[in-house]
């Protein structure tokens, strides 16, 4: 799996745009943590277009073993497994790049999932890239 982390210029702060804390370096989020994901992705397999309304869903992180059978390249040090097969809720096509927020802290970034849209899905683990971010920002 190739990661493409990027740093963007920050937006102007408004009542709707505020900074969020990032997970500490190398922090390992435990399974069953309650998190939320927001995005404009498709809301169903048969939908052709992405949503015109920002969608949000509450999900739980999963044990890494739930992702390994579906995603050969799954790597627990740089990825998070998110979603419960029983709930059938997940991020989907068009949500990539969106935040996974747990207790007010950005823990992950939507990466990829199954073509069916069913959980679990794979997220980039932000904590794995904190050293890279610090280096790029000159804050080692």
Automatic annotation (TrEMBL):
Residues 1-138 form the Peptidase S1 domain. It holds the Pfam family Trypsin. The keyword Cell inner membrane does not apply. Keywords: Disulfide bond, Hydrolase, Protease, Serine protease, Signal, Zymogen. GO terms for molecular function: serine-type endopeptidase activity. One of its GO terms (cellular component) is cytoplasm. One of its GO terms (biological process) is proteolysis. This is Peptidase S1 domain-containing protein. It comes from Chelydra serpentina.
């Amino acid at each position: 799996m190739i990661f493409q982390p990027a740093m963007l210029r920050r937006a102007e702060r408004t009542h709707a745009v505020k900074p969020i804390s990032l997970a500490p370096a190398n922090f390992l989020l435990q399974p069953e943590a309650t998190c939320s994901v927001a995005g404009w992705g498709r809301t169903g397999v048969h939908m052709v277009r992405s949503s015109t309304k920002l969608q949000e869903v509450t999900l739980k992180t999963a044990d890494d073993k739930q992702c390994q059978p579906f995603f050969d390249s799954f790597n627990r040090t740089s990825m998070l497994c998110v979603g419960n097969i029983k709930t059938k809720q997940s991020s989907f096509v068009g949500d990539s790049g969106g935040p996974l927020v747990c207790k007010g802290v950005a823990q992950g970034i939507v990466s990829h999932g199954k073509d069916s849209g069913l959980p679990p899905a794979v997220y980039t683990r932000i904590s794995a890239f904190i050293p890279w971010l610090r280096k790029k920002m000159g804050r080692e």
